Amino acid sequence: MSWPLLLEGTPALLAGLVLGVGFGFFLERAGLGDPKKLLGLFYLDDFTMLKVMFTAIAVGAAGIGALSAAGVVELESVAIQPTYLWPALVGGLVLGAGFALGGY
Amino acid sequence: MRPYWSPYLAGVGLGITLLAAYVLMGFGLGASGAFAHVAAHLENAVAPGRAQANPYVAGYLEAGRVWAQWIVVEIVGVVIGGLLGAWSAGRLRWRLERGPRVGRGRRLLFAFVGGATVGFASRIAQGCTSGLALSGGAVLSPGGWTFMIAFMAGGFVTAWAVRRVWR
Question: Which residues contact A78 (CB under 8 A, 6 or more apart)?
Fold first, then answer.
């Protein structure tokens, strides 16, 4: 069996549902269902969002790196977000502004 | 009402979920794409001619039925997961989160304008804080990290301008 599994069809949708439940559950448990807490980063009084996000990124990156180094996961089959510099800069700025207005 | 988890513990849980997405699917978690799929199908229901003539919207329609889209099903899971988390911790109740100095109407107006802005910006950037910053961050995508830094800059400046809504 080669990894990533690259699921398709019904197994993919079932996996999506379960992964989504995990995504929502852990965000809620961290308190990130509350926009006042989410926006704490921008008011420099609550860094929960930063701690959760960077811990998750570190675990994900270390996991993918370790599984790849062990020859379990083929990095060639993993979709890496393409880099569009200006769209990322402009979209990021505008999205950050909208996030601060709406709270999510 | 039980206290929130340590952000590091929740972050490890989220990181394992993210890693599982990459190992099972070959791609990470996302959010804004689901809204793009739903919006394209809504436009197609109201104004099919207009929707199908727009190459960008037509691209989403060509992906097929909205409930067969991975990211749409994933977002349904997010709602269920959030509900489960809140319910099992005794936090589930009907309320509008807002700062102490803002009325309900104003808060909802800001929510609408902010939501529309986030939706628009996610199409410029081809992703949002989930698909680009979180998932792109974990695979060290330069675009993902660029987006994250720009997101924080935009949020920081705007949050100070609308301080009265939240603090």
Answer: A4, A64, B22, B26, B27, B139
B162 by DSSP, 3-state: which?
A: coil
- Say how many CB pairs under 8 Å bridge A and B: 365
CA of residue B105 relative to chain centroid, distance: 23
At a CB cut-off of 8 Å and minimum separation 6, what does A85 contact? Answer: B143, B146
Task: Find which of A8, A54, A57 to mutate to test the B interface (most B CBs within 10 Å of its CB).
Answer: A57
CB contact B53 to A (< 8 Å)? no
- The ipTM is 0.97
Question: Would you call A94 and B115 a contact, using CB atoms and an 8 Å cutoff?
Answer: no
Are B28 and B133 within 8 A, CB to CB?
Answer: no
**Contact in structure between B92 and A28 (CB atoms under 8 Å):** no
Cβ–Cβ under 8 Å, residues B11 and A54: yes
Report pTM: 0.96
pLDDT digits (tens, 9 = 90+) for B104-118: 999 999 999 999 999
Which residue, among A48, A41, A37, has the nearest Cα to B8 in the 3D structure? A48
* Distance in angstroms (rounded) separating the CA atoms of residues B95 and A26: 21
pLDDT digits (tens, 9 = 90+) for A91-100: 999 999 999 9
Q: Which residues 137-156 in chain B show a CB within 8 A of chain A?
A: 137-144, 146-156
From residue A31, alpha-carbon distances to A13, B9, B91 in Å are 27, 12, 10
Is A65 exposed, middle or buried, given 0-12, 13-18 or 19+ CB atoms closer than 10 A? middle
Distance from CA of A38 to the nearest CA of B (A): 11
